[in-house]
TrEMBL record:
Membrane-traversing stretches: 20-43
NCBIfam families on file: tadE_like_DECH
Presence of keyword Manganese: no
InterPro entries, per the entry: Rv3654c-like (IPR021202), Tad_N (IPR028087)
Pfam families: Tad (PF13400)
Keywords: Membrane, Transmembrane, Transmembrane helix
Keyword Oxidoreductase: no
Segments forming domain Putative Flp pilus-assembly TadG-like N-terminal: 18-65
Protein name: Flp pilus-assembly TadE/G-like family protein
């Protein structure tokens, strides 16, 4: 019989033995953290875009109904926001414009939050009717 009790080792034990396993574990942990961060940022960005889209659509719908008064305009804005899975945080008329702020819930695993979108809609101003500086009386 050849090879005795220590034949499984291909050489003397060194302090570096197993360091590749530790480095691989650290690399995997870093990859998991980076991937998780990317997923969370993508979810937050998507929620913000949904909130902005809902605010845009709600403001447009409300501005179209603004001739019936601010209450009617905000009711129209709320209907459109709810149809887009958002809630209206604020709705107010300022002159001929309607300002709408919407919120969309954001669930990131055990952590929650809210994404907010803001929009302003009102009548279009004819280009020829603008003063030379480009401002309009409806601008804030």
């Amino acid at each position: 019989m050849t090879g005795g009790h220590g034949a499984a080792h291909a050489g003397p034990r060194t302090p570096d033995r197993g360091s590749v396993t530790v480095l691989a574990g650290v690399a995997v942990a870093i990859l998991v953290v980076v991937a998780s961060t990317v997923v969370l940022l993508a979810a937050a960005t998507g929620a913000r875009q949904r909130a902005e889209r809902a605010a845009d659509l709600a403001a447009l719908a409300g501005a179209a109904a603004l001739v019936g008064g601010a209450d009617r305009a905000c009711q129209a804005a709320v209907r459109v926001a709810v149809a887009n899975d958002a809630r209206v945080e604020s709705c107010r008329a300022r002159g001929l414009d309607l300002l709408v702020e919407t919120a969309v819930p954001l669930q990131l695993g055990p952590v929650g939050g809210t994404a907010v979108g803001r929009a302003r809609a009102g009548p279009a101003v004819a280009v020829g009717s603008l003063p030379p500086d480009g401002s309009s009386s409806a601008d804030p």
